[in-house]
Specification:
alpha+beta; Cytochrome p450; 16 helices; 12 strands
Length: 395
Amino acid sequence: MADPYPLYAWLREHSPVHRNPTGGIYLVSRNEATRAAYQSPDLRSIEVGELAEKHPRWERSRGLRIMSQVITSTNPPEHTRLRRAVSRHFTLRQAQRLEAAAERHCERLIAQLAARLNDGEQADLHHELTQPLGMNMAGDIIGIPEADREALTELILRVLASIHPASSDEVLRVGDRASAQVEEYFAALAAERRERPTDDLISALLTEVREGDVKHGTGLSHTEFMLLLWGLWAGSFETTVASMDFGVLAMVSHPEQARWLDGGPAEIKAFVTETLRYSPPVLVEAIPRIACRDIELSGVVIPEGSDVRPLHGAANRDPAAFPDPDRFDPSRNTSRMVTFGHGIHHCLGANLARMECAVVLARIRRDLPGVSLSEQPVLRAALSLRTFERFPIAL
């Protein structure tokens, strides 16, 4: 977890499509093969029935069943219809409109942080800045009242903790109870928004909900609407928060390159994008992709029915795509990075994530210029993610 990149380099050279013997999962580590896997019509998302057969605990767990039905787990034409319904609300223009909100949240949180740091205290960047910023931005976008955000975040974190492969049955039960509470909350909030719509994603998506069968038409069923809300809240801030944390780590680890954050929007964007390439928060694609037939990637034949997963960090450090890939260089061309996926599974929130990272890193550079690590950050064991449990800082 602390430094997976030497292993990734070994995999790219010696076993670019590596079969994990305990789960029968094929791990793809080269950039070209990863991009091909995301675009291949010969790979599809796993169906719910297949998932229950392969992993019985998923069938018994409410939270795991929900995770298996969110938009990223669907196939065309359902995926195309769902994505069309929601994508219009995740545009570059929307990200620019929300930038003012990000600035307001960031200014308040950094002022609180600076007061403690200037008194000589240590602080936790993750819990005192990046996580509350990500939480509040997700709340603003989706339409979750401020008073409910902390409690809802705690519930989602319990659900996400429960889907770790090593979770005990008791941890799964805790996650399932939390999942039921999240569902009840969103059902009540949706009913309120039907009566009194506001300028938020819940109100906008409610206009897409149709009665009856929508599979061959347009819009969303009520169940799909609820799954979208659940998935968007669960996935909208944890990876972005990790990216902000890794951005600060890049600032203190590469002080010469941190000067890019003193420039204009283009220079700040370049620093953020290189951070996303250099330290992607997703270790391995979380969603199973199943081979519809025998396929070949990096010269290796993968049998029909196999589970294929790209390794984002390995593909982003492939020297065939990025010269001198272990060097942090904001001037480089990052167009082949796969941090946000690729093709039809490219992340809907990519523009928002970049914007939030740009705002927080530029603000920290300006308002906390002497920030440093007071201890080594502590990574949290999480399914498919590299994210932080603690990130101690000082001035």
